[in-house]
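Subject: Sanity check before I submit

Could someone independently write out the structure tokens for this chain? I want to compare against mine line by line before I put it in a report. The sequence has 551 residues.
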Amino acid sequence: MHADIVFTGGTVRTGAADDPVHEALAVTGGRITALGAQALSARGPRTAVVDLAGGALLPSFGDGHVHPVMGGLGLAGVPVRGRTSVEAIVEAVRDWAAEHPETEWITGDGFDPWLALDGRFDARWLDAAVPDRPVVLRTMDHHTAWVNSEALRRAGHTATTPDPAGGEILRRDGSSEPLGTLREFGALGPVLALIPTASHEVQVAALREAAARFAAAGVTWVQDAWVEPHQADVWVTAATTEPGLPLRADLAFILEPDGWRERILRFTADRDKVESSAPGLLTARTVKFFADGVIESGTAALLEPYTDCPHSHGIANWDPRELAEAVTAVDALGFRAHLHAIGDGGVRGALDAIEAAARANGARDRRPVIAHAQLIHPADLARFAALGVVANLQPLWAQPDPLMTELTLPRIGPERGGRQYQIAALLASGARLSFGSDWPVTAHEPLRGIATAVTRQTPGGVPEGGWFPEERIDVDTALAAYSAGCAYQAFEEEEWGALRPGMRADLVHLAADPAGTAPGDLAHLPVLGTWLAGRRTHDVATPRSTRAGRR
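---
Independent answer below. Compare away.
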């Protein structure tokens, strides 16, 4: 029987330790059917031959923690990402507002939180550009918002408003008047709830744009790590109407402390609806929790106080017993728990909740996920492997960029600062590892994260030898975390994540073999093609879709 496609003319890296390299690969019916000489002999008169042109064919990438709908929507609005000063952001807001006089709420996503001293952004700076319409800008981590006075007024944030549970309203020095900086969802919620929700059609267009970008980066599976109830329908529409989606996804329903017992009542029906609508493409087997916030805002939960704020341990979003009860409840329904945990207190709370669920519901292969795990107490490192927890890390964060040097390190000091992003230590402990981007927080291209995992350097090569170089990993290990690691997280390691006969032909074609590429050049290695079950979803010559419409 002749193959549908044969790839040849380069290096085929299977991702398997016992059979790593071949000269060719054959695909029939969307699955890998042969490697090496057998693949070459499978060519027939109707076989499509893909010339790798000296490059490499690898298992395609996954992304174990990402926000496609949110990221796609964030492509609209004020272009604040990458602006290098407060003044530049204010100017962008002024220009955008003038160009969109019909838009009531002016929004933008992704500005850098270190641009103002101590991350304190003043509403008056935005008032100077737009005094009469609400402005809401969110930082790159989405845990902080900078708003103008009109947005504060509409949300009811005044000098007499107390800090809400799970949030902080920063005040002007020497007064109780809100400054214009809101931290965590307890404080952001009253503002975000007033912003008109994008239409279903706009959200579908935003998701399609995001999916096209991931396909262009070699990604064929994503874990959507924050799905509101209505967004399940966005995924179903995008997957079941032309032109479809170029990737698979698992959806994680968000569960917050307020009213969680009532919310989980609909999760099973939502899961069944998603999976019956797009079988083989969409699953909805995960529930997302926020255990804490982020270190740069002082909201990650720490076991010991913040260095720059000795009275604060950060913000734990859940009461520990309530978190354990909620994780146990969704685990009993057959869902995977996926917990955002940044500080060592947040990580410990997440591990405790997972342990409680296993104790209550009995042993099984549940593969819970702790995402980010930026700071782990030494006593908790071995618990990941012992509890079967998948550590989903964002390798692009493991570098001394301005977020780290200007905000994070001053808040936790040198000892804790040296225990961040312990990629190699987690692997040495026996823990399972997957990688993700957390896009739109940071760049979605896996090769950029792989480069950082290997070098622990900024794009400019700083510091020489790497930032805490003992936590560097080799290229093959980093590639595996973005492929086999994500497949394991998805319970699909027998289907994708490696190139073996019988597995799905989820493939990525790189312009050169990453094993022979200088570490500093990995981030810029071109992705020439992506295939989902043998269907080409990205060709370097094919332009991406148009941008999503405005919110």
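---
OP: Matches mine. For the report I'm noting this point. Residues 543-551 have pLDDT under 50 and may be disordered.
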